[in-house]
């Protein structure tokens, strides 16, 4: 959660296996981003209701997967039907302004240290200590 002063505070963290087996890294990233988007939208809705805000707080989802970003912004038909549904759901969330999806470089992905062997914790620790994002 990021305040008007740009200070951040984690309010939830989750590391788990995906809810289903996927055929590709793109499908895995898409499924994970969909879960994150859903959680972010729910939290933003609660913040809006608790604070009587006229508009939904901005939910920014960040991914270091370039293929996912390209797939979200193309009109090409996706052959994998399950992936097609997941991508369509993400596109709809973006279109409705429920979430915004941004690309970041892999070295700036704070969560990698929680799931990838050899990833550095320096940026995550710095963000938690300073309450600031890179």
What attributes characterize this protein structure?
134 residues; mainly alpha; two-stranded parallel ribbon; 5 helices; 2 strands; globular
Structure in words:
The chain has 134 residues and is mainly alpha-helical. Helix content is 46%, strand content 6%. It has helices spanning 25-50, 66-72, 81-95, 112-115, 122-130, and strands at residues 60-63, 100-103. Strands 1-2 form a two-stranded parallel ribbon. It is globular, with a radius of gyration of 16 Å. It starts with 24 loop residues before the first helix and ends with a helix. The mean pLDDT is 90.
Could you provide a short overview of the structure?
The protein is mainly α and 134 residues long. It is 46% helix and 6% strand.
Number of helices: 5
What does the overall shape look like?
globular
Q: Give me the secondary-structure category.
A: mainly alpha
| Average pLDDT | 90
Global Rg: 16 Å
Q: Assign a percent range to the helix content.
A: 40-55%
Strand order of the largest sheet: 1-2
Poorly predicted parts? none
Helix/strand order: HEHHEHH
The percentage of residues in β strands lies in 5-15%
Strands, total number? 2
Q: Distance between termini?
A: 15 Å
Main sheet characteristics: 2 strands, parallel
